[in-house]
Amino acid sequence: MENTAVATELTVEQLEALLSKKRREENELKRSKRQAYEDTREDVLQSLMSGANGLSIALYEFKKKAFDELEALYKIMQEYGDIPAHSKGGFSVTSKDGARRCVYAYRTVSDFDERAQMAEEHLSLFIQSHFKAKDEDAYKWIRTLLEKNANGKLELSRAQLLYKMENDYEDPNWKKGIELLKESYRQIDTRYTMTFQEKNELGEWDEIPLSLTRV
To answer: Which residues fall in a coiled-coil region (predicted)?
Structure first.
């Protein structure tokens, strides 16, 4: 027996209507997904912003309270220990059980201006000509002292080591480099800082992180 199929042909208008309906459904699905994404994004952002603002306020209030109390404690320490009122030294206080402590330190915020780059050029010329082929260890040591930190700045502690070596060599590039390095240093600000620490199982001090990047 021969099977026959009866095909129903759609008109052009009917095909266009079906295609139009399909496009509307697809567009509606896209709009629905976009709206769901945007609503979720807004909810997440609002939730996190609310939490961040709350933490910021709490941290500000804690910082103010901590500084006020530590400054008051320092005044008592000055009176109790007969420390000069103009003294800016920091201090640390440790709990009776020796497991917790707070460090209150006076720090100088400093930087080096463009003369530090000039200094580096002179010092590089010096170590290239004076050490590279003769004393690899000395070459690497001075080069290490000239390395910049993650912010692209010289470290004051390393620069101070170079200062101490000023009279070790009479080379003009060395002398000029150290001179420029000293001139480039500038003190930007001075401030008190505080850290809170707890002893771990190894008896070492771990700082309690108060920054998101350190938690």
So the answer is: 5-39
- The continuous run of DSSP H or E covering 110 comes out as strand 100-112
**CA–CA dist 208, 88 (Å, integer):** 25
> Which residues, in sequence order, are bridge partners of residue 48?
none
User: Residues 186, 192, 196, 202: what is their CA dihedral angle, to the nearest 10 degrees?
Assistant: 40
Structure tokens at 168: 């070790």
Cα gap 62→209, rounded to integer Å: 14
Six token digits for residue 158? 């390393």
Nearest to 144 by CA among 130, 158, 156: 158
Q: Could you say which DSSP state residue 148 is in?
A: B
* CB atoms closer than 10 angstroms to residue 198: 13
pLDDT tens digits, residue range 123-162? 999 988 887 767 788 888 888 999 988 888 888 889 999 9
Domain ranges for the chain: 11-87, 88-215
Q: Is the pTM of this model over 0.70?
A: no
Distance between CA atoms of residues 14 and 208, nearest Å: 71
Which residue has 């010092």 as its token pair? 123
- Enter the tokens of residue 77: 């320490």
Who's near 209: CB < 8 A, 6+ residues apart? 215
CA distances from 41 to 27, 34, 56, 189 (A): 21, 10, 22, 41
- What single-letter amino acid sits at 158? R
